[in-house]
Amino acid sequence: MLIKDYIRLGRISIKSRKKSTRNTVRGIAFGLIVLVPVIYFTMAFYIGLLGAVNATRGVACFSFATVGRESEEGAAVDESDHILLGRTEYNRMYAEIGNTVEEVIYNEYYELIVRNVNDGAYAVLDGAEENVFYAPSGGGSEKGVVYLNALVKIVESGRTGKNVIPAGLNADLESEGKRFLRAGEGFSQDARGQVLIGETLAAAMGFAPEEAVGKPFSVFAYGGGEPEDAVEVVAGFTVAGVISEEYFLLGDKNKTEQDAQVWLSGDSVYEETDGGLVTKYLPDVTRRYEYTSSGTEQVVHETHYPRDMRQMEAEAKAEKFFFPAMTVMDFFGYNTPDDVLKPVATLTVQCKDYAAATAVAAILNRGYDRLTKQQNALLEDHSDRFAGSLYVNLSILHRTGKYVMTVLYTFGGIVLLATLLNLYNSVNYSVQVRRNYIGMMRAIGARKSLLPKLYFVEILLIFARSAPWVLAFGGAISYGIKALIDYAFSVANTLFSGIVIGIKFGYFFLALAVVLALAFFVAWLFSRVACLPVTRKPVLEVLSDEK
Question: Cβ–Cβ contacts within 10 Å for residue 168, how many?
């Protein structure tokens, strides 16, 4: 038989039971009108929206505080409620490289002790001296503006050029025609005595980025003392590169807006010992508790140098090493077993994509959850501790989308199941009332494979009758979903750091393709199942069965 013959017979069959067919078509139309928008929303959200999110690599970049490499301590919480993840999470991040994580960058931060906004430290660039270090509240906080601060950042040894920041942040900058380094090549392979400075700091000292490269740069700090007593913590380091303001303006979405304006390589900080890398000129800083005259307990930090501090300062200067003088600097530290404070490590973790980032976030959340429960602070999500605002807002959106889809698929699934049951009953009834007719067809030589084909085409014709309703109402609902979501994103644009986010209506046609494939599968399955009683039995038994 030709295809047109199957179609003609199918139409005759449908016409013979017009009323029941009409009800079946309406039921199928209603079910598909519900199903198509649900599939559209799923595809537009997971494929389109998350695809756009993955194009912004910085979304999957995390930064968090943990114990440093000089300690085997577990997680710790200090008296100011700062939470440090422990060795478990520290090691797990490195273990995830090649799986969910692309790279992990180890950093440490020191902070110059600054008083009266910007009094307590100054920089010298090629002989030009300026007070360019500001206390945390003194530099300003207006969005879209890069402010100076009092931080010194230590980047792990071996990081050269633009690789001192994650590949994802570099990719985001380059996608917009920007770059991490405004001038210079960055740290070389042996970066001892080299420094990176921010474009904002260079400008504050009267230098263009290109002019600053190659010049000697020093940092003097005197904390609460007098300028003439200043300690040279960075002594004549060569400016190897100038960090562009564009990096800092990646902003809170990547936790870069408050990053340090002075970066040193680990080559200028650490030395190799039998116990691994240690900070060469870091004195022993111990913490003890004492009571004031009023009976209040207070923390006292004591600094112990193995020899004269000024002598060590001169040695560090001669060797081109960073000199972290704890009389004029500070660091966020944690106690080792011998009660010596060590700098906290800041791990910057670049995940492969948003899906990988959610898996890494789950690891970190478990670590934070374990610690906060010890303080009776039961928080379910701690992503604001390690992720930028963009990831935090997108993760909220993602969870909300999953809840919405759960509801939609539950409702749509019930409607679709009821619709399919109605369709099957209709087809099965058609087979049962034509048993004698089918038996005679087989008696005169019709093959068993012919009968399912007849009902396969008939079911497809029923689906086809519902198509105009599905296209009209399913398309309208899908477009309404798109318009509503696009409007919501436009209103909440600031929550996504200016990134243009929307969903494409083109996924509606993919949703139709999925439904079409489903229709063919249902027609194939139902036609065969419904015809089993009349194709497996002998011809005489089929003819002898009552209607």
Answer: 23
pLDDT in tens, 45-96: 777 777 777 777 888 899 988 877 666 555 555 544 567 888 888 889 999 9
What's the alpha-carbon Rg for the chain, to the nearest Å? 35
The model carries a pTM of 0.76
Instruction: Report the distance separating Cα 245 and Cα 200, nearest Å.
Output: 7
CA distances to 311, 331, 461 from 305, in Å: 10, 17, 89
pLDDT tens, position by position, 447-482: 777 888 888 888 898 889 899 999 999 999 999 988
| Mean pLDDT for the chain overall | 83
In angstroms, the Cα distances linking 383 to 60, 85, 101 are: 12, 13, 17
Q: Is 41 exposed, middle or buried (0-12, 13-18, 19+ CB in 10 A)?
A: buried
Q: What is the pLDDT of residues 320-332, one digit of tens each?
A: 999 998 888 877 7
Helices (H), 277-332: 309-319
List of residues 6+ apart from 54 with CB closer than 8 A: 60, 353, 354
Q: What is the pLDDT of residue 58?
A: 83
Q: How far apart are CA 95 and CA 158, in angstroms?
A: 19
Among 254, 134, 106, 265, CA closest to 200:
134
Dihedral angle of Cα 532, 536, 541, 546, to the nearest 10 degrees:
0
Question: What pLDDT sits at residue 378?
Answer: 46
Three-state SS sequence of 331-356 = CCEEECCCCEEEECEEEEEEECCHHH
- Whether 18 and 410 have beta carbons less than 8 Å apart is answered as no
Which bin fits 304, alpha (ψ -120 to 50), beta or left (φ > 0)?
Answer: beta
> 119 pairs with which residues across the strands?
115
Mapped onto helix, strand or coil, the DSSP state of residue 380 is: coil
For 30-93, give the DSSP string: HHHHHHHHHHHHHHIIIIIIHHHHHHSGGGGEEEEEE--TT-----EE-TT--EEB-HHHHHHH
Q: Is 33 left (phi over 0), alpha (psi -120 to 50) or beta?
A: alpha
